[in-house]
Amino acid sequence: MYARIIGTGSYLPERVVHNADLAKIMDTSDEWIRERTGIERRHYAAEGQTTVDLAEQAARRAIAAAGLNPGDIDLIVFGTTTPDLVFPNAGAMLQARLGCTGGPAFSVEAACSSFIYALSVAEKFVRLGEAKRALVVGAETLTRITDFTDRTTAVLFADGAGAVVLAPSEEPGIISTHLHADGSYQHLLYCTGGISKGYEPGTGNRAVIRMAGRETFKVAVTMLGNSVEEALAKNKLAKSAVNWLVPHQANIRIIQAVAKKLDMPMERVILTVQEHGNTSAASVPLALDTGVRDGRIKQGDLVLLEAFGGGFTWGSALVRM
Ligand code: ACO
Question: Which residues are catalytic?
Answer without folding.
Answer: 112, 248, 278
